[in-house]
Amino acid sequence: MVCVVCPLGCKLSIERTSGGYRVKGSKCKRGEEYAVREFTNPTRMLTSTVKIRGSVHRRLPVHSSEPLPKGKIFEAMEYINACTAHPPVRCGQAIIRNIAGTSVDICASRDMKK
Asked: What is the pLDDT of residues 38-80, one digit of tens each?
């Protein structure tokens, strides 16, 4: 895998050992932590849009408050696609709380007036 923590883009390899994991190719501690995290529980930020009724615009841009487990992305998108927001909405406001049981909120990425 290629590390994305810093601009170096180290080429990493990881293997499981009896005491945990061994990472090769990392030039810093952050790269090692990234490799183990990506190998054991990969996560991604989620950006999308939700329907909004009663506003000038028909869609509201949203993002996850924290990275979601990769395996929950499609389930989260089902909730997002079923959601309809109502103005007024403030940037950063939680539109969906605890999406897919992950403790992560889906938040508005902009203000939206009536």
From this structure: 999 999 999 999 999 999 999 999 999 999 999 999 999 999 9
The token pair at 12 is 């990493």
Is omega for the bond preceding 88 within 30 degrees of 0, making it cis? yes
Cα 67 to Cα 46: distance, rounded to the nearest angstrom: 7
Q: What share of the chain is helix, strand, coil (3-state, %, to 5)?
A: 25, 35, 40
In CATH terms, the superfamily for domain 44-108 is: CPE0013-like (3.10.530.10)
Q: List the chain domain ranges.
A: 1-40, 44-108
Tokens found for residue 70:
């990769």
Residue 13: name the closest of 3, 25, 5 by CA. 25
